[in-house]
Amino acid sequence: VALQVVAAFTQHVGYTGELETQGTVSVKGLGLLESAEQVLSWKLSGVDPECSKSHTAKNACGIHIHQGKSCYEDAGGHYWNTTLIETDPWHSITYKAEKHGREYVATAHDVKVVTGLTNFEVLSHTMIIHNSIGGRVACGIITPRDLGVLAFTPYYTYAGDFKVGGMGVKITAGGVTESASQTLMWNVNGVDPKCREGASKEFPNSCGIHIHQGMSCGDNALGHFWNKTTYEMDPWANVGYLVSSGTQTWDKAREVTTGLEATDVMGHTMIVHNYTGGRIACGIIATCTEIVNAFVPYYNYHGDLQVSGFVKVVGAGILSTASQTLSWMLSDVDPQCKTPPANGANANACGIHIHEGKDCAGNAGEHFYNKALVSTDPWHAVKYLAVEGSSGVWSTSGDNAKVITGLSMAEVLGHTMVVHNSSGGRIACSIVG
User: Fold this and answer.
1) H or E element, residue 230
2) Which of 10, 64, 105, 107 is the most core-located residue (most Cβ within 10 A)?
3) Per-residue model confidence as pLDDT tens digits over 326-344
4) Helix%, strand%, coil% for the chain, nearest 5
5) Of 420, 428, 418, 423, which Cα lies nearest the Cα of 346?
């Protein structure tokens, strides 16, 4: 399933009480359109002791996703698709306080809320904890569970010999508002061997590995990226790598408090510097894996096929090598796709493709790929083969269909995935993430 988290909470703006709620909430996404739901599981401490009893006040003891996208300001009202869902689905979602030692805690698993929203749509929104009289006491931000830099390419102006590669960088979110941080874990090779003794005090950015403002490795990455309203001093200035052997460096936990959420840094550049501070390599911060876990009939499809199942999307590469690898298990696909499409068949016949659109309620647009980096449509080669099951339903499974799109995972997140029939018609739609 599509999984996101609230990694930390802070007091809601304007709250002046004594409660200091902390903990985590996982947010799973299921369904699509009117069946789209979030499934919440939480483990909280410091909740309102009065929520050990039932209360009738509006929003009393609630745990709700709100419209806002910042804990620095008011979170706005409850968030759901008001076009698809008539009444507020959040009013019935509450936590139960239980005494544990000297504090009150709350736990729950798999609490379903039908919102009409995909998990992509709730990403970066606020999660609010209410007290027993309905007041807002704590705020957190819904973020991806993990981010990473999957690959590096030479910085666009770099002409030297260093070729940065390796296993990449994993980025874990922590904190919220002024405590928001990114913890970096990396295993990278091809860096400057002069960094064996660490960074030089003579050169700014010496041996650095930093998140930058830019969002493309084909252009200027600009300066370091952090919340300048919250912090005057650059938190990246002293973040550097040590070469352990040859040209390899690794670090298992380098926390940098930036005042930025994971959703703020997603899609931004990560730059590796050499000993003299020059920029030698660039990568893009993104999710590493996404799940497409629910399908609806394509908006103008009126046939009998009801595609269901999942598609796993794994990212790799960067710029002209950036790719998505698809693995799937789907049922009720077109039986006519039991054999590969014949020569001269529609190019989209029996296809599973990511499209430009971001909404299954309308036209999904054309295939999605970076036309500046990839000259021909890479999606035409992606086909499924249908197999008849014991119940007479035709299904398909596939592994490791690699598609070089020139797009990062940050770019494909939220786009439509379309399943085609044997004549190339669009029969089902879902959302990546």
Assistant:
1) none
2) 64
3) 999 999 999 999 999 999 9
4) 10, 40, 50
5) 423
Distant-in-sequence, close-in-space partners of 228: CB < 8 Å, separation ≥ 6: none
- Which three-class secondary structure state does DSSP give residue 319? helix
Instruction: Give the β-pairing of 209-211 and 126-130.
Output: unpaired
Q: Give the separation between CA 68 and CA 75, rounded to whole angstroms.
A: 4
Collapse the DSSP code of 182 into the 3-class scheme (helix H, G, I; strand E, B; otherwise coil) and give the result: strand
| Runs of H (alpha helix) within 46-98 | none
Q: Which two tokens stand for residue 290?
A: 């996404």
pLDDT in tens, 121-155: 999 999 999 999 999 999 999 999 889 999 999 99
201: exposed, middle or buried (Cβ count in 10 Å: 0-12, 13-18, 19+): exposed
Q: Do the beta carbons of residue 180 and residue 174 sit within 8 Å?
A: yes
Q: Using CB atoms within 10 Å of the CB of residue 388, give its burial: 0 to 12 exposed, 13 to 18 middle, 19+ buried.
A: exposed
Alpha-carbon distance of 305 to 322, in angstroms, equals 33
Distance from C-alpha of 285 to C-alpha of 394, rounded to nearest angstrom: 38
Q: Which positions ≥6 away from 202 have C-beta within 8 Å?
A: none
Chain length of the chain: 433
DSSP state letter for 312: E
- What distance in Å separates the CA atoms of residue 345 and residue 326, rounded to the nearest whole number? 23
